[in-house]
C-alpha cells in the first residue's frame, strides 16, 4: 500500500467509514497502471489514488460498490475487447475494456468495513468473559451506556442496572438485546418494563444458545454464538442512521459497461433520453462525433 493511500486508509478506519482498498496486482502494456498502484473507493463512488485510466476506473468503481454491499473480496480482471490474455482464475470477475489504448489489468478489491459493535452492560464475571470473547471475534466492545450504532447489546448485570441498560439499548434501536437471567426472572423483569411488541421481540432472554453452559466462559460462548448466528444467518445489522446515498449507475449503450454517473461522466442527451458513457471514445461513437 502506498504511503499516501495507507494514511488515508487509516483515517477512514479510525472514523469507522467503509471503503474499498483496490490494488493493481498484474498489468499488461499498454495499460497505464502498474503493479502496486492502489486507491481507496468510497461509498459515493469517488476514487482516491490510481488504478488505471478512465475505462478501467469505471469498472473498478462499479465492482467496488458491489463489494461494499456484500462484504466479499474480488479479483477484477479488465481485458481489452476480444481478448482473454490472462488465464481463468476462480472467484474473478472479467470485464471488457472498450478503450482503444488496450492493455489488461488485474485489480484486487478488498472491502474495509467497520467492525461490528457489541455493547456490554454489567460488571460481573459473565460480562467480562463476553467482552473478552467478543474482542477475540473482532467486535468493537462498548462498555458504557451509549449503545447507538451497536449491532447487539449483552445485559449481564445479574440484577444490577438491567432495566436501565435494556431501555437504553432499545431506545438506541439495537436489534438484538441479550439478557442474562433465568427464564422466570427475565419474564418478570420484562413485564415491569411494559415493552411494545417490537421491543419485546428484540430482547433475547435467557441470553445465548442452549448448549448447557455453566461457567462464565461457557455462557459467554453461548451468547456470542447466538450473536454471530444473528449476524450471519438473520442479517442482523446496527441501527440505521443517516441513509446511505448510492451513486447512480448507467449502462454505456456502446460497450455495455456499467458506469457510475457523476459530474465528469461523459454524457449525451439524444431524443430526450440521457445516456452516459465510460469514456469520450464511446460518446463519440454514439453521437457520430
TrEMBL record:
Signal peptide: none annotated. Transmembrane segments: none annotated. It holds the Pfam family XdhC_C. Residues 14-77 form the XdhC- CoxI domain. Residues 120-227 form the XdhC Rossmann domain. Gene3D superfamilies: NAD(P)-binding Rossmann-like Domain (3.40.50.720). This is Carbon monoxide dehydrogenase accessory protein. It comes from Micromonospora craniellae.
Amino acid at each position: 500500500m502506498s504511503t499516501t493511500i495507507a494514511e488515508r486508509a487509516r483515517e477512514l478506519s479510525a472514523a469507522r467509514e467503509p471503503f474499498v482498498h483496490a490494488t493493481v496486482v498484474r498489468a499488461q502494456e499498454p495499460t497505464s497502471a502498474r503493479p502496486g498502484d492502489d486507491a481507496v473507493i468510497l461509498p459515493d463512488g469517488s476514487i482516491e489514488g490510481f488504478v488505471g485510466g478512465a475505462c478501467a476506473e469505471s469498472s473498478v468503481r462499479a465492482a467496488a460498490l458491489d463489494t461494499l454491499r456484500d462484504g466479499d473480496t474480488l479479483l477484477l480482471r479488465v481485458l481489452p475487447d476480444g481478448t482473454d490474455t490472462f488465464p481463468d482464475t476462480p472467484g474473478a470477475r472479467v470485464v471488457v475494456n472498450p478503450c482503444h489504448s488496450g492493455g489488461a489489468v488485474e485489480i484486487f478489491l478488498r472491502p474495509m468495513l467497520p467492525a461490528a459493535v457489541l455493547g456490554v452492560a454489567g460488571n460481573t464475571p459473565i460480562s467480562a468473559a463476553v467482552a473478552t470473547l467478543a474482542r477475540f471475534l473482532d467486535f468493537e466492545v462498548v462498555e458504557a451506556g451509549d449503545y447507538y450504532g451497536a449491532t447487539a447489546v449483552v445485559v449481564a448485570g445479574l440484577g444490577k442496572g438491567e432495566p436501565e441498560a435494556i431501555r437504553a439499548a432499545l431506545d438506541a434501536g439495537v436489534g438484538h438485546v441479550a439478557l442474562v437471567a433465568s427464564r422466570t426472572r427475565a419474564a418478570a423483569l420484562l413485564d415491569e418494563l411494559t415493552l411494545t411488541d417490537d421491543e419485546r421481540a428484540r430482547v433475547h432472554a435467557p441470553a445465548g444458545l442452549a448448549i448447557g453452559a455453566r461457567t462464565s466462559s461457557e455462557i459467554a460462548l453461548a451468547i456470542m454464538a447466538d450473536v454471530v448466528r444473528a449476524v450471519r444467518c438473520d442479517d442482523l445489522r446496527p441501527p440505521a442512521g443517516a441513509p446511505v446515498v448510492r451513486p447512480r449507475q448507467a449502462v454505456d449503450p456502446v460497450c455495455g459497461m456499467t458506469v457510475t454517473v457523476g459530474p465528469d461522466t461523459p454524457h449525451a442527451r439524444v431524443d430526450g433520453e440521457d445516456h452516459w458513457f465510460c469514456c469520450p471514445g464511446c460518446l463519440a461513437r454514439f453521437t457520430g462525433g
